[in-house]
Amino acid sequence: MTASEIAAAVRDGTLSPLATALKAREDIVSREGQPGGLNAFLALTSEELLEGGVDGLLAGVPVAVKDNLATRDLPTTCGSKILEGYQSPFEATVVRRLREAGAVLVGKTNMDEFAMGSSTENSAYGPTRNPAALDRVPGGSSGGSAAAVAAGYVPIAVGSDTGGSVRQPASFCGVVGIKPTYGRVSRYGLVAFASSLDQVGTFGRTVHDAALALQAISGHDPRDATSADREVPDFANVVHGGMSGMVVGVPREYVPETLDAGIRRLVEESLERLRGLGATVKSVSLPHTRFAIPAYYVLAPAEASSNLARYDGVRFGERGAGGDIGAMYESTREAFGPEVKRRIMLGTYALSSGYYDQYYGTAQRARALIAQDFEHAFCDVDVLFTPTAPTPAFRIGERVADPVSMYLSDVFTVTANLAGIPGMSVPIGRIDGLPIGGQFLAPWWEESTMLRAAGALESSFSEGGT
Ligand code: GLN
Predict the structure, then answer these.
(1) Mean local confidence (pLDDT), 258-283
(2) pLDDT (tens digit, 9 = 90+) per residue, 209-250?
(3) Residues acting as catalytic residues
(4) Which residues of 261-290 are buried (b: 16+ CB within 10 A; e: fewer)?
(5) pTM value?
(6) Rounded to 10 degrees, what is the CA torsion of 14, 18, 24, 29?
(7) Please, which residues have CB within 8 angstroms of residue 259's CB and are 6 or more apart in sequence?
(8) Would you say 4 and 236 are in contact if contact means Cβ atoms under 8 Å apart?
(9) CB of 122 closer than 6 A to ligand 1?
(10) Is ligand 1 within 6 A of the CB of residue 74?
(11) Residue 44: partners with Cβ closer than 8 Å, 6 or more residues away
């Protein structure tokens, strides 16, 4: 059942929220316990603690939450050994809002350590497998959440997207993933990776479900100074509004000569569908796109190096052994995995005196130009359409030794975070059985337009239409 069907049945009294949650939990325990289990979860709520509302937008809907969102009853590890068993004294606003909307938290999902990665292989607790092909990655960093929805464990899940970590795993697993406008959803209780880029996002098997979840978690939060005081539209309701008359831009830089031929064909087929739905398709240019990956991989590590300074053995989680305080810091921070260490070193270097302007300053200027590109493009078009990722899901182990090839899987997604605009991935077909996603990008605060376009494209598939 979809989330909206479950919520409607629970509100009607024809479905028990507790029974639904128990069934979801049982299914997870039995399927994950088998060989070939996905390793999608890092913790499950114990049976006695399962509780859901009988009322609300998500009444009785089982949800899974990425393990970098603080929860009351379950540990919050960020996929890191340094936070093994860490129990937060408070709850993330997103988690509270899900609960208040009636949702039942069934567990915390696996992720790349501190959300740094594109495959979930950087988790200290082992990689997650892609339910569409068990020898492949589910994408990352929110791979556990995407896999949990794709496997049918839960109808909706929550993740975070700093450079594509909701949209890219949605593409790899064949589900819908939304990253809202920066400031739409509170970051209170989201463990910080790169604060100026981080946003919480949602997964669903349908556009409607992902929109419903987004609606439940959106809105101003006085506890997050970057959360915007803006009205939250009825996201779920706009999904079926159609897209007749809409102008869709296709940025040339996102469909390069070198793009995988199968992905290009699926993107072109989708554009044909959009035309059939009454949209006009036009080619546009976002000329500074080539600076996005270099700018992101200076800015995100710079912010991360500062944010991760707090894991020093004094305030959070693990404390290493050592004779004096310096030795204690050193042995504590040995618990970070290789990717996190790499980012801390890169970021510290980029921020060091003498290099600050050369790296950080230049990256900030590139960021401004990328945002300006979008501003110009959105004068002429309502939404943009691109591939979500340059490849289908790759094999587990294939890219771990080559960080740059891993970084390149974000080439089409990081721009939205740099600019702060909303973006989402919707399934547009398969290549050799592997799911492929198409990405819609919209102007700041225009999630509704993006959801209408995505909902229309989705319905063209389910109706076998155009
Ligand atoms: N893959 C990107 C990175 O490693 C994005 C991660 C994310 O969005 N959290 O930084």
Answers:
(1) 97
(2) 999 999 999 999 999 999 999 999 999 999 999 999 999 999
(3) 66, 141, 165
(4) ebbeebbeebbebbeebebebeebebebbe
(5) 0.97
(6) -150
(7) 387, 390
(8) yes
(9) no
(10) no
(11) 25, 28, 29, 106, 107
The model's pLDDT over 366-409, given as tens digits with 9 standing for 90+, comes to: 999 999 999 999 999 999 999 999 999 999 999 999 988 899 89
Neighbours of 11 (CB within 10 A): 18
The torsion angles phi and psi of 420, rounded to 5 degrees, stand at 90, 5
How far, in Å, is the centroid of ligand 1 from the Cα of 138? 14
Ligand 1 centroid, distance to 300 Cα (angstroms): 9
* 458 CB within 6 A, ligand 1: no
Give me the residue label for tokens 């949800």.
Answer: 63
CA distance 50 to 46: 7
On the 0-12 / 13-18 / 19+ scale of CB atoms within 10 A, 316 is middle
- Determine whether the shortest distance from the Cβ of 163 to ligand 1 is under 6 A: yes
162, 307, 342, 408: residue to mutate for ligand 1 pocket, most atoms within 8 A of CB: 162
Q: Is-contact 423 199, C-beta < 8 A? A: no
31 by Cβ neighbours in 10 Å (0-12 / 13-18 / 19+) ranks as middle
Span 4-15, average pLDDT: 98
